[in-house]
Batch of 2 targets.
Target 1
Amino acid sequence: MAMQASEIETMIRAALPDAEVTITDLAGDGDHYAAHVVSASFAGKTRVAQHKAVYEALGGRMGGELHALQLTTAVPN
Amino acid sequence: MAEVNDRIADIIKDDDVVLFMKGTPLFPQCGFSSRAVAILDHLGVAFSSVDVLQDMEIRQGIKSFSDWPTIPQLYVKGEFVGGSDIMMEMFEAGELHQLMAEKQVARAEQ
């Protein structure tokens, strides 16, 4: 039921190919992650739209098997 | 479905700041909800909360209403602001404080 960090990264990069994805396993239990996603495709989008783009990349897993994903997004400098 | 959307629309219209959360501000049942409450407390704004664990219809309904997959969810003056991660990002950037000031939301009673 838990997801691997590599699986999360692969799904995000499949939808946002330019994205720089950093995943941190917060609790060391393979169930509580933080993801930092940097992508040029976020430019001009609201934070809500940026987060939605990542949630969409995760194909409905967010809120289900991925309960605890702390997400931050940014546009490259 | 339409009925629950009406219920949610009424809830977010009734109060300036509404937090859909797991548990109550005093006893949050999830770390993300707890963080959301802490941010609102820190901002010192008055808010009402809806415990989705007590209402399965709203627990599911709010996700499609906002097109957002997780809880907590913050509404200010009827508009969806985001979940706890966005609240934290906005709080740290000073944007949440700014939003509450712009929307002229009521302060919490001390």
Target 2
Amino acid sequence: MRQTVFDNFFWASGQIGEVALTAVLILKGRWRKFPAFTAMIAVPGLATFLLFPLEHWRLTKLYADVYRVFSIVDFLVQIALVFELARVVLRPTGTWVRDARRQFILSGVAGVLLAVMLAYMVAPPSPDRAEGLEIRANLFTSLLICELVITVSMASNRLGLGWKNHVMAIGQGFTAWAIVATIVDSLHSYFGTEHLYESAEYVKFTAYLCALAYWGVQLWREEPARQPISPELRKFIIALHERVQYDLGEAER
Amino acid sequence: MQVFPYALLTAVVGGLTVTAVRSQRSAIKLNNRSWSELVAELHFVDSRGLILVARDYLDPRKGQIDLQPEEIWTLLGGDQGLRTMLLNADLLVALAAFAQQWNLDESVIVAERMRRDGVRLRKAVRRVQIGMWSQVFTGRHWVEVPFQLQEAASSYYLMRQRLLALYETSHAGLYPQLAKAV
């Protein structure tokens, strides 16, 4: 397929944005707290680094295989990011806040079922079967990520858990991008690859670029200092958590 | 092309978008509210009635079954009273979390205990509401309702007491204003 000026512009902007954000994550040491997020930003750059020579030497078969592997890795990294957000937000003292884990798992299972059902039910009008399958797979991924990240946000609000600045910024950017990706992938499932495909993809990519810029600025800034929890206090909280969990379990029987 | 899958997909995506916006707004609100704003948002709860019902349940004495279900319902302010408790519960937890800047050790633990109380409060209120609806449709009294009312009152009472005790030790200057508000 012929590359347009827009394609090249978005591709180059994405690369620059990802490299810049990776640099911020490493230089500021944020990767230690958000390894999955760092991986999500670094993986596309690594993919391009490997795919570019394959395309240049016209190794089409190998290119397609590597591309598929990276798509799966990208999906897994996004799922890992959702769990990372859940770990930071729903386990503020090192243990799951009561009811947060159960709510998260239940919503996750419901989200998977709903995403599978919808991706199966839609019938994207595409002359190529593989393209149709890819559209369904993308729709499933977008829906699932979107549902899970909203679940984390809702659970934390319901339990009165505040989000610190950095995790809040990652959560907001990720949610906004997931919503736009879901809307775009839903449009693809209706219009297929013939109509509006490229325009909708540009919208999705613009949202991604905005998210990259937002993350870059927010993660560059320092969070307001907060006194860390001492190891003794952490031990006490874990012991208390286990005791109360047991007592409640007994009381609810 | 079938219409139903796309109608369902549109509904799901629309629902997700609205939920995401509301959820993020609520998270920002939770993070940015000042102490005075949190206190100002607390709704009035008749503490006399609440204390009476909660203590009758938590600290049983002679004549512990004297309080009748109708009386409990009235003392707690009926349906409106239960809704107010639910609204206030999130604010009480936020106020406990706010105290982390003066007394990190105690407030982390107290906030976690209060969250647990809050979970029990929500569960009890939900069961009361189911019981009341069931009563409207079937005309039969749901035996569980009075017990759940007491559960709700005692959970809210514990949240209130935990918060007051936390402020009493961590910020005596704000305590009188808080005691008046809750």
